[in-house]
Amino acid sequence: MCGKIVLFFKNKKYWDIVGNQPDLKNSFFRIEALNFSVVMQNETQVELSFCTTWDPNSEDYYSKSVPLKIDIRYIMLSGSSGFYAYAIFEREEKWPALYVDQIRIVFKLAMKKFHYMAVSDNRQRIMPEAQDRATGQPLDYPEAVLLTNPTNPDLTGEVDDKYQYSNEYKDDKVHGWISFDPPVGFWIITPSYEFRPGGPFKQELAAHVGPTALSMFESDHYGGVDVRMEFKDGEPWKKVFGPVFLYLNSNFSINDSTSNTTLGHGHPLWQDAKRQMLSEVQSWPYNFPCSPDYISNNHRGTITGQLLVNDSYVREDPMFASFAYVGLAAPGPAGSWQRETKGYQFWINADEEGLFLITGITPGIYSLYASVPGVLGDYKYESDVTITPGCEIDLGSIVFTPPRNGPTLWEMGLPDRSAAEFYVPDPDPCFVNHLYLTKDRFRQYGLWDRYTVLYPNEDLIYTVGASDYRKDWFFAHVNRNVGNGTYRATTWQIKFEIPDLLPGTYTLQMALASASRAEVQIRVNDPFAKLPHHTTKFVGKDNAIARHGIHGLYWLFSFEVPSTLLLEGNNTIYLLQNRNQSKFSGVMYDYLRLEGPPTPKRT
């Protein structure tokens, strides 16, 4: 199809893994197969296998360091414009402990051909070249570079950082690169994220300068050690990663000039890649992989039901859990799915009435979880669910009673696991990515220092009833830049009025969308109290502030506030983020709500 077009550099397509045994240094290993075999070969399909296994007696550092058996497979189908890739990772009993921070496939394309990158409909652009980063000005960390003398002068003065192009798993179904001359596209299509860890909101790298395209199967990005894959001594394990489809398309009816006039989501190669993605999604789970470890559709199960929300302080009758994310993952407490890394997860977006149908579930024992937009907290079904081949389980109506102790006195934000509704500032004009001037502004570089610009003399003060969280609540509670590389902890204030103070216990519900080496201390009406009235303690290592995420991992805290700490009339809650060792330490609030003492339930 592509003639003699050179798509890759030699030796620039590979699988790699980051990890090691606990007593050895965390290391990067490129996976190299020791055994090759043809699994299937006929007129319609070829499947190849490349295997390697742990050998503690090997002289090769990788072979003796990583106790894994890996079988990498490639499939080509007749009439298909591309190839499929998947792998079976396995650990045997009695093998030593292991941690894994990253598993991925890397494709580095021809630099002279691929200049246009697309990771979504509204996130596409001409990209700098690798040499432009080498000649640019390094910024606060190696991934971020200011382009000072790029090959394309139109990019002068922009910041390049691969984390600006991350995607949530639920949105990362197709991404890739376009060559204008000749008009060729290279795309990674991920029809399902069932084999990816951390659930639908986990963020991951997609594509970046190189030109590089990634298929990420496991990483600690936007989660840190909380999403690291860890195995104990003697812990067996097996998992199939993929298949993903590496799709190539071309349109020789358009020339270079035509391509440049159709940049953006209207580009014909991008539109064709999306059509192919939809076709792959509809075909999932595939029926052609030869490995017996890949479960075909007729050996999978189905579960259906309707999720309702019961919050008597909002509405007397249960409400539909409209557009909830409902999923199956390994058994654990509510919300544990976002830190689960070893098993499979199956998620669906419920409809407006909370109805859900999850198909293609591999056999096993799961918990059923849900996250409902606009509703605080995490849901878990009362009992585990056993999926058997061909089963069809109907749960009927199930009810989520979200965390609540009393009526709402005031609230800030939207309970949606994100800080996107809060105020995101304009970037420093010296550190701009023009793709994000009007949309997704949180992806701009250096926003952590914009807080000091907006609040040069005193910290943020928010007055309930007068302030607007969309304009007056900075999206990230960060430290103050006082110069010379020094940062000072900041205390934010929430001022509010209680006209009629009732005896009893009030509740402050605090949901965090992200936490990066932080601690939030809460003091009520006494900013100088030696000890805080409450604290989150040290929380989080998701690094979302530095990596331009509008969320990382979700945290929920419920703090009791006795009425003896409050005043009839004006009150102030002081939020001190007191970990100031780094400019990237801080939290993003998802939602804050003050509840009054419990009131008698309606009858």
UniProtKB/TrEMBL annotation:
<keyword id="KW-0964">Secreted</keyword>
<dbReference type="InterPro" id="IPR029411">
    <property type="entry name" value="RG-lyase_III"/>
</dbReference>
<dbReference type="Pfam" id="PF06045">
    <property type="entry name" value="Rhamnogal_lyase"/>
</dbReference>
<dbReference type="InterPro" id="IPR014718">
    <property type="entry name" value="GH-type_carb-bd"/>
</dbReference>
<dbReference type="InterPro" id="IPR029413">
    <property type="entry name" value="RG-lyase_II"/>
</dbReference>
<dbReference type="Pfam" id="PF14683">
    <property type="entry name" value="CBM-like"/>
</dbReference>
<protein>
    <recommendedName>
        <fullName>rhamnogalacturonan endolyase</fullName>
        <ecNumber>4.2.2.23</ecNumber>
    </recommendedName>
</protein>
<feature type="domain" description="Rhamnogalacturonan lyase">
    <location>
        <begin position="323"/>
        <end position="394"/>
    </location>
</feature>
<keyword id="KW-0732">Signal</keyword>
<dbReference type="GO" id="GO:0030246">
    <property type="term" value="F:carbohydrate binding"/>
</dbReference>
<dbReference type="InterPro" id="IPR011013">
    <property type="entry name" value="Gal_mutarotase_sf_dom"/>
</dbReference>
<dbReference type="GO" id="GO:0005576">
    <property type="term" value="C:extracellular region"/>
</dbReference>
<dbReference type="GO" id="GO:0102210">
    <property type="term" value="F:rhamnogalacturonan endolyase activity"/>
</dbReference>
<feature type="domain" description="Rhamnogalacturonan lyase">
    <location>
        <begin position="408"/>
        <end position="594"/>
    </location>
</feature>
<dbReference type="Pfam" id="PF14686">
    <property type="entry name" value="fn3_3"/>
</dbReference>
<dbReference type="InterPro" id="IPR010325">
    <property type="entry name" value="Rhamnogal_lyase"/>
</dbReference>
<dbReference type="InterPro" id="IPR051850">
    <property type="entry name" value="Polysacch_Lyase_4"/>
</dbReference>
<keyword id="KW-0456">Lyase</keyword>
<dbReference type="GO" id="GO:0005975">
    <property type="term" value="P:carbohydrate metabolic process"/>
</dbReference>
<comment type="similarity">
    <text>Belongs to the polysaccharide lyase 4 family.</text>
</comment>
<dbReference type="InterPro" id="IPR013784">
    <property type="entry name" value="Carb-bd-like_fold"/>
</dbReference>
<dbReference type="InterPro" id="IPR008979">
    <property type="entry name" value="Galactose-bd-like_sf"/>
</dbReference>
